[in-house]
Here is the input.
Amino acid sequence: MHPKTCLFLLFAIILAGNLSGQIYAPAASDSFTATYNADDKVFIFNIAQYQGAHLGSLTAVSIDRLSGWDFQWSVYNPVSHIYTPIPGSTSGWISTVDTITVSSGYQVVMTKGASTAIYRVWLLFNDYNVEITNKDEENHLIFGYFNCSSLDLRADTTADHPLYYYNPATQSRINVFNNYTIRWKTDNINASIPASRLITRVNNPPSEDTWYILTLTDRFDLQRADSVFYESIVPEAKLTATYVNLSDSEEYPGRPYGNYYEDAVLSAPGKYRFDLSASKNAVGYEMRFGDGIVFETDSDTGVIVHEYEKPGKYKAVLIAKSAKPYECIDSVSAEAELVYARFLLPNVFSPNNDGDNDLLELYDNNNIFRSEDVSVVSIDIAIFNRAGRKVHAFAGSIRDWQGWNGNIMESEREAPEGVYFYVISVFFAYEDKENPISHEVMKGFFHLFRE
Here is the structure.
């Protein structure tokens, strides 16, 4: 023991007014009272590394802290059950034995003139190991201890230095109770933490490669750890669904649908983007769109665009599969929805750029007469003046109808103010059976104003 440490300890005892001879072990990790005698102590020395070098020391201090004492140390012999003197003795007021390498009992006899004092202690070296037993030489979890739904972790402990001491009076052996706190952790925040057992099972293994680290801490705060690497065989399916607005020029190139439709109008036929790029650890994917169409791919970096023909609610399912021989499967779903038909024509049209009734309020394109529609597929419409003369006509996909700009048959001549009639001879829409479109809209009239 360092001299400064001894002096500090001694001064503390003197200041406390509790002078007594004793054996101390300031470097010990822990200590407790022997069960057979309250005056005898048991000192625990933790070994830093398993089966590593270990060295203990004991220091005896005289009763009066004055020189003139003779110290004779002895070591307990478990065979003869007697204390065998250690060759040599020391004199003074303090004596140290600092070359102890094995667990044993020690006794010191202090003499000074007619005064004699005997003190006994036990010094025990604490060492154990923990090892995950189902891993290979590269610290990988061994094949057979994991599958698509679970993985097993197995560990065991080895104690090379059992902790025990003896009752010198009865020679009976006294085992020192020790217990362990078991803790598992991982380097993957998404992985579940195994139960606090040496042999444990992890359900729903992670989709990412993960280190599992086992740590044991005993009663005397000695800690040991081991780890194993799990190379994941489990895929993780991730899917998001986003409606493609009709103004999306990438999916509807050269089509000015954005002039006539609000974004997120959910019109049928309609497209959805399905993004599976967040999926992990899969070599193949199967996309079931919910309308009977199935798509397969081995790429997880792209976006799949799918067009639904009819309105309704669809449950799209992505199935991810890992590599052979395991071919584990994970699935996830997303919803897609297209609404049923709406159809409405304005009853006032004022193509004079004054910002009032120039167009249907929803649209940004000026000076057109056009319907507000959703999930209407095709239309054949003709517009007539009161004399029965046709001033505008269109037939085809309603999305391609650019509306009537107020000129007669696409000429430069403006149609005069007045009442105009429209007739729809072909009208195809995906109608909700519970709320069908009124077919009274197949014929109607509106007023055209220019002032």
Observations:
- The radius of gyration is 45 Å.
- The longest helix spans residues 3-16.
- The chain has one helix and 32 strands.
